[in-house]
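sanity check both lines:
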Amino acid sequence: MMDKIALWILLIGGINWGLVGIFRFDLIAWAFGGSDSVISRILYIIVALAAVWCISLFFRKNELIGNDEVSRENRM
């Protein structure tokens, strides 16, 4: 469950960075009062922590999303 949450947060952060790169528009800063506001900084930190968590996905063996389907196929 934690993997899915981290991936969703990382996806939202990636979309925000895409907006910054393409349109120079920071959605988080716009929504929460600028990039220096406390809420914006907390959200940036949460996205960074999600990215660090997702690094662990590279080092796991077959523990990714959808593992239940693989185990069902092996039982048949």
User: Anything to note?
Assistant: Helices lie at 2-23, 27-31, 38-55, 67-75. The chain has a mean pLDDT of 88. The CA atoms of residues 60 and 74 lie 20 Å apart. The chain has four helices and no strands.
